[in-house]
Design a protein that fits this description.
By secondary structure, the chain is mainly beta. Helix content is about 0%, strand content about 45%. A hairpin with a 6-residue loop joins strand 4 and strand 5.
């Protein structure tokens, strides 16, 4: 069973930066596509960013394109989300997720749909103060 543990959330002023980390254990991390999602009490879980199994391809929601960067270190079984130029609209609980179906043998690189991910972390709160 894959376990994912997020860290790095917190309170930051508008315009600031945070780096989220997600450490994976219990599976073959290097064969999984990974994604970051976020959720507020008012909204459904929203796609933020995804990265393919090797780290060669990345995908972003329009709302974060140019401000956020997803990356991974397969040697450390960790995926990161660097968030810059944060604003109040980025306030949410951030979740990382693993997709074992979109690996080296898949014709689909990543999915941006939450239901496509089989494993989820517990979430980390990001609060941006204005």
């Amino acid at each position: 069973q894959v376990q994912l543990v997020e860290s790095g959330g917190g309170l930051v002023q508008a315009g600031g930066s945070l780096r989220l980390s997600c450490a994976a254990s219990g599976g073959t991390f290097s064969r999984y596509a990974m994604g970051w999602f976020r959720q507020t009490p008012e909204n459904d879980r929203e796609f933020v960013a995804a990265i393919n199994w090797s780290g060669s391809r990345t995908f972003y929601a329009d709302t974060v394109e140019g401000r956020f960067t997803i990356s991974r270190d397969n040697a450390k079984n960790t995926v990161y989300l660097q968030m810059n130029s944060l604003d109040s609209g980025d306030t949410a609980v951030y979740y990382c997720a693993a997709d074992r179906h979109r690996g080296p043998d898949s014709t689909v690189i990543v999915t941006t749909v939450a239901i496509g991910y089989q494993y989820w972390g517990q979430g980390t709160q990001v609060t941006v103060s204005s």
